[in-house]
DNA sequence: TTTAGGG
DNA sequence: CCCTAAA
């Protein structure tokens, strides 16, 4: 029992309210995914993933930790590639796994590629279509199925198959493309230029129990040529996808610690991380260090083990903030969107064909691999040519015991969760979001020559259902879906589509500006479910959990700080204020972490700094006249308590001479 | 990492 | 909300 200060504050109980039933959460269970028909592309990915997983596992067991070796699998692929025998669809495993890569290599540079080559490239098309355009998937799926089910499958290319199906290209298709591929390599083109990055790493890597699936840039959405705006969900002409090399990368990352634990071997794993990982990690660090808490938008329901609970890794202080989180091994332990936005940068009308030459670069803050053109014409119109969007990096962690099928579903769900609700578009200038929809491009400076290369577009999850809560294992173990920021995304009307010329994305200024909705309309209608536990822990679970994807700055990484997006404003509800007041009454004003733990333990979007700030504003609010207050009115009764507690604790603090009163039992 | 305050 | 010095 909490010993309360004796100034007569009454105890109140936050009325318990039920958490929104899981059944109402979209995609609450992936057994029956709503987009089954769209699983195809991700099944491809997952097939690769599954195979790589197998490979790395078997290798790990056989080779122990004798690192410094590429996986035999990798060797074989590399070797085949040197011999020009690699099919255009390439999977590659880098052993010891910190980062096994699988790459769809579909760069068909030559327009002379046979139609079969184009069909071949449909592998990528599927990915892209799935990403944004739902209507295309069935068509692409047929293509894939045709390949997969073909009798001509080359069984020896086992690195792209799983137990269920082969994802391989028929030989005749392969051969017809072979010359192109081979030539490409022999001409000194970097393998990475085709999305294939040959690892020269001789690093040691350990295997992590839960494999983390890292999809860096699974898709590029081509808006050139025949393709129209992805926002309008129109059919994508498939052929247009085949002309661009993509960097589709699957990276498996293993956990050093777990591996070491299992093997009793110590390596300097971090130091040996491949660049991809360093980059991954750096992004993550940057984001987390900025409190860019990537609250998961979804949890995954798994299928493999019912006795496995869920242990979301919310952040470093999870041990403190996750009192009840399962200690079980987890099927899907963590999912984070590191890049929570899809960014397109303009290149100021300069060359925009420079698809990133390396997966690393693609991850970098420096988004110099421009994918959009911007041109100011003499008629004072600004023409935007958006070449591609990139799907943000996803991190998915699954245990080794996860089935390939579950991995597939996980990948699919992650992507669908991110994009399934549609996307909104933000406009970035100098990396900062232009929030005012009602100012002109001229006012923003977009049309200024010097800003041509400072413009970017951001894709953001756009719908109410963009963040389904999915978790693995026993449903009761699933923690509350993490509340996320309300979108500040702006809805693009179809009017933009209408404004588009038939074969290229040209957004006319007027439409761009005027068709956007007001960005503030979202935060106000956020619906929150409030739950309390026996300890008056209050959690708000916005049903509209559509936190924008992280913004990838368009500028130089040295200016990264300029591009950190501000968190979406989330006004405190009266209930939250009540809980805060309650906690402060008991704990005082100098123990915000305790306040957080007591009353907002599950509200990950409220940091102790937030609570402290809110208290500060509450005190201020209580002091000013009611007519000066803004926002949702706080009951005067609460404000009175704020003032009382503030006065009490100020006095108390003074008397205690800074000593923190020990009120807890 | 937390606290405390200014911006 | 952000940033950050200071503890």
TrEMBL record:
Compartments it resides in: Nucleus
Pfam family, any one: Ubiquitin_TPR1
Keyword Nucleus assigned: yes
- What sequence ranges are listed for the domain HTH myb-type? 565-623
Region of interest: Disordered: 14-35
Query: Chief localization class?
Result: nucleus
Taken from the UniProt entry, a GO cellular component term is: nucleus
Ranges for domain Myb-like: 564-619
Claim: Nucleus is one of the keywords in the record = yes
Q: Which domain of life is it from?
A: Eukaryota
Q: Name one GO molecular function term.
A: telomeric DNA binding
Family annotation (Gene3D superfamilies): 1.10.246.220
Q: Which UniProt keywords apply?
A: DNA-binding, Nucleus
Among InterPro entries, the record links this protein to:
Homeodomain-like_sf, Myb_dom, SANT/Myb, TPR1-6-like_ubiquitin, TRP_plant
**What is the name of the protein in this document?**
Uncharacterized protein
**Taxonomic source organism:** Lupinus luteus (European yellow lupine)
């Amino acid at each position: 029992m909490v010993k309360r200060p004796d100034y007569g504050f009454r105890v109140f109980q936050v009325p318990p309210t039920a958490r929104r039933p899981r059944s109402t959460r979209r995609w609450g269970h992936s057994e029956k995914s709503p987009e089954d028909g769209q699983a195809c592309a991700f099944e491809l990915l997952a097939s690769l993933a599954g195979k790589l997983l197998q490979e790395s596992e078997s290798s790990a067991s056989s080779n122990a930790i004798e690192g410094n070796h590429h996986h035999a699998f990798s060797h074989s692929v590399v070797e085949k590639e040197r011999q020009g025998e690699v099919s255009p669809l390439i999977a590659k495993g880098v052993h010891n796994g910190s980062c096994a890569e699988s790459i769809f290599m579909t760069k068909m540079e030559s327009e002379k590629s046979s139609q079969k080559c184009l069909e071949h490239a449909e592998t990528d098309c599927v990915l892209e279509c799935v990403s944004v355009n739902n209507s295309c998937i069935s068509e692409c799926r047929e293509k894939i199925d045709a390949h997969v089910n073909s009798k001509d499958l080359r069984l020896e290319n086992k690195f792209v198959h799983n137990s269920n199906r082969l994802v391989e290209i028929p030989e005749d298709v392969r051969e017809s493309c072979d010359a192109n591929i081979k030539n490409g390599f022999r001409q000194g083109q970097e393998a990475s230029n085709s999305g294939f990055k040959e690892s020269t790493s001789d690093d040691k890597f350990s295997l992590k129990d839960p494999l983390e699936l890292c999809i860096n840039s699974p898709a590029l959405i081509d808006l050139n040529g025949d393709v129209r705006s992805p926002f309008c969900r129109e059919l994508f002409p498939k052929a247009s996808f085949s002309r661009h090399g993509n960097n589709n990368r699957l990276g498996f990352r293993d956990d050093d610690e777990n591996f070491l634990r299992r093997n009793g071997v110590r390596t300097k794993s971090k130091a040996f991380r491949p660049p991809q990982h360093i980059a991954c990690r750096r992004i993550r660090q940057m984001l987390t260090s900025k409190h860019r808490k990537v609250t998961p938008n979804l949890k995954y329901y798994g299928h493999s083990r019912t006795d496995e609970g869920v242990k979301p890794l919310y952040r470093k202080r999870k041990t403190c903030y996750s009192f009840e989180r399962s200690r079980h091994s987890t099927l899907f332990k963590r999912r984070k969107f590191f890049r929570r936005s899809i960014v397109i940068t303009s290149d100021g009308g300069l060359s925009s064909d420079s698809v990133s030459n390396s997966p690393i670069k693609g991850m970098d803050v420096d988004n110099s691999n421009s994918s959009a053109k911007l041109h100011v014409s003499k008629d004072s119109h600004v023409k935007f040519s958006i070449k591609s969007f990139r799907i943000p990096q996803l991190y998915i962690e699954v245990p080794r015991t996860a089935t390939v099928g579950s991995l597939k579903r996980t990948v699919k769900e992650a992507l669908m969760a991110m994009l399934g609700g549609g996307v909104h578009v933000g406009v970035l200038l100098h990396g900062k979001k232009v929030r005012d929809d009602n100012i002109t491009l001229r006012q923003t400076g977009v049309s200024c020559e010097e800003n041509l290369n400072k413009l970017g577009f951001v894709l953001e999850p756009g719908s109410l259902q963009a963040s389904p809560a999915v978790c693995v294992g026993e449903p009761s173990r699933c923690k509350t879906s993490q509340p996320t920021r309300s979108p500040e995304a702006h809805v693009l009307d179809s009017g933009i589509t209408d404004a588009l010329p038939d074969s290229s994305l040209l957004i006319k200024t007027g439409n761009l500006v005027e068709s956007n909705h007001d960005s503030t309309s979202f935060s106000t209608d956020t619906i929150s479910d409030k739950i309390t536990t026996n300890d008056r822990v209050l959690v708000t679970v916005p049903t509209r959990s559509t936190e924008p994807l992280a913004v990838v700055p368009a500028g130089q990484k040295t200016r990264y700080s300029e591009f950190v997006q501000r968190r979406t404003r989330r006004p405190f509800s009266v209930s939250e204020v009540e809980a805060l007041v309650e906690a402060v009454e008991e704990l005082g004003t100098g123990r915000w972490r305790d306040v957080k733990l007591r009353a907002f333990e599950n509200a990950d979007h409220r940091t102790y700094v937030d609570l402290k700030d809110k208290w500060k504003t509450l005190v201020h609010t209580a002091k000013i006249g009611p007519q000066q207050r803004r926002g949702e009115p706080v009951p005067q009764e609460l404000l009175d308590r704020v003032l009382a507690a503030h006065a009490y604790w100020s006095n108390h603090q003074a008397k205690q001479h800074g000593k923190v009163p020990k009120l807890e039992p």
